[in-house]
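Incident review: delayed structure delivery

Summary: a single-chain prediction request sat in the queue longer than the usual turnaround. Root cause was a stuck worker, restarted by the on-call engineer. No data loss occurred. The affected request and its eventual output are reproduced below so the record is complete for anyone auditing the incident later.

Affected input:
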Amino acid sequence: MHLNPACERCGAAGIVLRLQTLTRSHVLERVLVSLRGQATVEGTARYRKRFENAAENHFRQSQNLWLSSIGVGTYLGNADEATDQLYHDAIARAVELGANVIDTAANYRFQRSERSIGTALSELGRRGFGRDEIVVCTKGGYLPFDGAVPVDVRAYIGMR
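Output delivered after worker restart:
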């Protein structure tokens, strides 16, 4: 583990972990990037102001945050790069159009949904959207595989 000023792939700053994961055909190296920040009162209020022409009550206040009445979920889909890109694009477009709530979990698509959200948030940052404007809802408790189902599950568990 080391501190990285910016991920070469998505530009996100944070902690980078290099892990080796067994897949069906080969060992794959994964780079996990931890994005700094969280939704704030000020950030979500700023996001709401971007969409002053939105439908009445499109944004609702809960727990001192302004939440869009519609969000984007990341549960289903294949665990592959094509689906990763589709989620990345859908999340970026949803945020650009007024949805600042994103739902995910570590076990969605073997952690790939959370990674797609990370790359989308990094791109949105470059487009002028602050991390503090976007609410990411995630869940814990379930330990998923890393990227795909390993060929030998027992060996994978033994690795941990």
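Verification: Confidence is low (pLDDT under 50) at residues 1-33.
Action items: add queue-age alerting; document worker restart procedure.
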